[in-house]
Specification:
70 residues; mainly alpha
């Protein structure tokens, strides 16, 4: 069985990698996704488990499919 924390860390790592590749700050990503900047940081560090809706918001802000984040 896969631990939730492992999945959260993988999602966070993928978000950070794509965000940095696109040269977007956490603050800009948060604004584009309609989320709090600190929350983006928590997600990227795997400290929060984002909901499906949140993953979709972040994917839209990054202009990628949600599948790429998971």
């Amino acid at each position: 069985m896969i631990k939730v924390t492992t999945v959260s860390k993988k999602i966070g790592k993928n978000i950070r990698k794509i965000r940095e590749r696109k040269e977007i700050t956490q603050e800009q990503l948060a604004l584009d996704a309609g989320l709090n900047r600190a929350y983006i940081g928590y997600i990227e560090r795997g400290e929060r488990n984002p909901s499906t809706d949140t993953v979709v918001k972040i994917a839209k802000a990054l202009k990628v499919s949600p599948k790429e984040l998971i």
